[in-house]
Amino acid sequence: MKPLRVVLADDHHFFREGLRGMLTADGSDGDGAVAIAREREPDVVVIDLRMPGTSGIDAVRRILAGRPQTEVIVLTVSAEQSDVLEALAAGACCYLLKDTRVDELVSSVRLAAAGHAVLSREVVRALAAQVRTGSHRAALATGSEPALTARELDVIRLIAQGADNATIGRELSISGHTVKQHVTSIFGKLGVQNRVQAAVRAVRTGLV
């Protein structure tokens, strides 16, 4: 497997040092992350939201403006809906919490580099809980709920829980091909391009 070039941007020295074995470079603030991304042209940047100087959100925007092919993973302590949605809107492909196991983080880095999106299950649960309270529900741009079938609702709920296609197939006793068909249909109906966007969209519209 081709070695990946990864930048970790976090203002906590010991946290960065603990992950240096999987990194090619690191930065201690948002401006440093942007500069390193421009210099090193990494495949993936792992960045915190709360850092001195340029915020993580602004750094995500600047990194992707200068190098759109870089994938950005937000790794932070916040599961707040506003932070999650702002980070994804800025272009981050993954949103993980800092209690994520190292092996899961490494897996997420590889998935991000391959063009996949990852959303921490804890983050999805937090978003879903907020939506169920009715305090953070966002209106659809179209003004109406997406018309998903009963089976598609089953699938999107599992996607929002972080399940992959194989797991969805086992849970619903359907083939992998059928799962792919449902996922493709769901993406089209929700107007999204990946599983993270689908999960967030489903949470925001009260589908999960």
Main attributes of the structure:
Rossmann fold; 208 residues; Arc Repressor Mutant, subunit A; 6 strands; 11% strand; single chain
Account of the protein in words:
This protein has 208 residues and is of the alpha/beta class. The chain folds into two domains: 6-119, Response regulator (Rossmann fold); 138-204, Winged helix-like DNA-binding domain superfamily/Winged helix DNA-binding domain (Arc Repressor Mutant, subunit A, Orthogonal Bundle). Helix content is 51%, strand content 11%. It is built from ten helices and six strands. The protein has helices at residues 13-18, 30-40, 56-66, 81-90, 102-113, 121-133, 150-160, 165-172, 176-190, 195-204; strands spanning 6-9, 25-27, 44-47, 71-76, 94-97, 118-119. Strand 4, helix 4 and strand 5 (94-97) form a beta-alpha-beta unit. It is elongated, with a radius of gyration of 17 Å. Residues 135-143 have low confidence and may be disordered.
